[in-house]
Specification:
alpha+beta, Nucleoside Triphosphate Pyrophosphohydrolase, five-stranded mixed sheet, 3 helices, 11 strands, GDP-mannose pyrophosphatase
Length: 188
């Protein structure tokens, strides 16, 4: 169907093999037959959790992110381990990072946040029926949790205070879910 747009891999090599990320450089044939190279990051995928309380508050995190040299406001999230079910990962990450567990989980959507240079995908889940407990942060992980509301988050997005793409998209989804105009699906 889209063959007139497709690029075809001719060959390639792994140019960096890190603990978390891998960088690949491929030679591809363009739709017009010319050859070029594509460099991209291979990423195992991640989950994003939208923790929503019955009173409409949402649970967020503040965490320093080295590449942008600033503390970012984000939803709980984390990398999917090899062969790990994304929902199991979401449940694990919510508890590890925030201490909360949830009794109701719904799949919201899949997003690709950096399609020009990465194959990373993020599976977004809505978590309700939140129950507080102790967090279990990974070694070397430092963050703080806090509560906010969707209207406050929308203001922060508009003001440029919140710029993390998964958090922006998650907030837009929550706005639609709370308004009753969009519905997530049951567990994926």
């Amino acid at each position: 169907m889209d063959r007139h747009l497709k690029e075809t891999r001719i060959d390639g090599e792994l140019v960096y093999d890190g603990r978390f990320l891998k960088v690949t450089k491929d030679t591809v044939s363009l739709p017009d037959g010319r050859h070029t190279s594509r460099e991209y990051i291979r990423h195992p995928g991640a989950v994003v959790i939208l923790p929503l309380f019955d009173d409409g508050r949402i649970l967020l995190e503040r965490q320093y992110r080295y590449p942008v040299d600033q503390v970012m406001i984000e939803y709980p999230a984390g990398k999917i381990d090899l062969n790990e079910d994304p929902l199991a990962c979401a449940k694990r990450e919510l508890q590890e990072e925030t201490g909360y567990t949830a009794t109701d989980w719904q799949f919201v959507c899949t997003i690709h946040n950096a399609i020009a240079y990465s194959d990373e995908h993020l599976e977004i889940y809505l978590a309700r029926g939140l129950i507080a407990g102790p967090s279990k942060l990974d070694e070397g992980e430092f963050l703080e949790t806090f509560f906010s509301t969707v209207p406050e988050m929308l203001s922060w997005i508009r003001e440029g205070k919140v710029t993390d793409v998964k958090t922006v998209i998650g907030t837009f989804w929550l706005e639609k879910i709370l308004a009753g105009t969009w519905s997530p699906t049951p567990e994926k």
